[in-house]
Amino acid sequence: MKIHFQPKLISTLKNYTKEQFYADVMAGVIVGIVALPLAIAFGIASGVSPEKGIFTAIIAGFLISLLGGSKVQIGGPTGAFIVIVYGVVQEFGVAGLAVATMIAGVMLIAMGLLKLGTVIKFIPFPVIVGFTSGIALTIFATQIKDLFGLQIDKVPADFLHKWLVYGQFSNTINPWAFGVGVMSILLITLTPKISKKVPGSLVAIILMTVIVYFLREKMGITGIETIGDRFTIDPSLPKADTPEITFSMIQMLLPTAFTIAMLGAIESLLSATVADGVIGDKHNSNTELIAQGVANLVVPIFGGIPATGAIARTMTNINNGGRTPIAGIIHALILLLILLFLGGLTKHIPMACLAGVLIVVSYNMSEWRTFKTLMKNPKSDVAVLLTTFALTVIFDLTIAIEVGLLLAVLLFLRRISETTSISIFKETVDEVDYIEGSIEYEKLHLPKGVEVYEIEGPFFFGVANKFEETMKQLGDRPKVQIIRMRKVPFIDSTGVHNLESLIRSAQKDKIQILLSGVTYNVHSTLTKVGVEKLIGAANICSNINEALIRAEEILISKK
Length: 559
Hints:
Layout: H1 8-12, H2 18-45, H3 50-67, E1 75-76, H4 82-113, H5 117-120, H6 125-142, H7 144-148, H8 159-168, H9 175-194, H10 200-217, H11 227-230, H12 247-279, H13 285-298, E2 308-309, H14 311-319, H15 325-342, H16 351-366, H17 368-374, H18 379-394, H19 397-419, E3 421-425, E4 428-435, E5 438-445, E6 450-456, H20 461-474, E7 480-487, H21 493-508, E8 512-516, H22 520-528, H23 531-535, E9 540-541, H24 544-558
Helix pairs in contact: 2-3, 2-14, 2-15, 2-16, 3-13, 3-15, 4-12, 4-13, 6-16, 6-17, 6-18, 9-10, 9-16, 12-13, 12-14, 12-19, 18-19, 20-21
């Protein structure tokens, strides 16, 4: 098997210019600054310490830009993983998360090597919107405690129980914390109206951290919790520590790892596709998956959490002039410098401010306008959308992804089966001639005792059953049945089995089956499984004319 691994960094460096380097450096610096508050917020919300979010942004951001199949993709921790990571940490601990992330990394590499990148991009839009909207609502629910400064020792993981507990502790609302959270949200949303170059989340964190520090130290106001009150931050470089992996752990964490891998694949390829539309480029989806896999395989060794392509940071990169993977590498280096020289200051960041950052992230993720538009689509799309959304919110993302993908497959099969039609001809049939670029139709008269059944579309299990039912309903007893297969691109094992049963049944009833216009792929399949031998090579005809001639020969021999 030939491996197509072609990092975009190699091709972009061939004609790299000094001007583009300056643009990439500027974009990388800005994206690095934008990524800092998000990395801290995602780390904390995921149930790990804040510096682990930064480690993930540095290591994964570097590897995804170095090895990835997109010119402008920025990798790191994202909001989509918060729900699943938090659940894994609560149930299996940080060691369990590390193992699940590494297994997911292996799965992503395998997907890339097996060239499944193009397949993943065809996951139905309602499934993706259902996931992202459900995740957004769940993230919003996790931030209510810190936004209002509620005095709750442990918030339940279950969505509905969460809100019941919030209601029970509503009398512990801290107005100072709530004020910090609301001001943070206002700063994040209003900053782009003043300057699009300066990230609103960074403005909110710097300003609110200074204000809260003044309130706590100079005015003696307590109750506004900061990162330092909850975590001990280590601003030094991460140390490598490979987790102990056992077969029982792999068995236990496999469904979670699959969820992380699928979520990472969907989000990274979605982000890369959006970026392609903006910069007029085409990413290599399989190379991108391999890069994502390598990043998720390495990051847990240094205490990081799952990573993927981040749409918001990728768009920030593009909008600030980044056009090659160098910008992503610079962004990782900037984060590393911030961690080493300014990491100790992060302990003063208010938790309510981070809650505000994540509430804005969840709002942007929610895609409520798209959700509203999809509700006007066909009922099948609406059912898939609402099912994946409800499962994500009420149960968990593992169940939602598994059921969502199953629904996607069923929806696909249903639509494919609807595109396949079966036509019956008893008196005349169309002959198609291609003459000088035009198509001419000529009616061919069928001899008495000959019927033609034309299949248009894939002959797979759903259609095979429909074809069998059609034949039974007719109940005809012609001497020759011609099955016209010129528009059948492939046949699966159920279709082959159905065809074999039909031929054997017809032979018992002394009816001759002829196959007409069989394509090369289908003919090859029929030869391998022995259908050609069963029916006889002379009874597989290249076109309808040849089939009718063969039918007349059979009728004469029967007389």
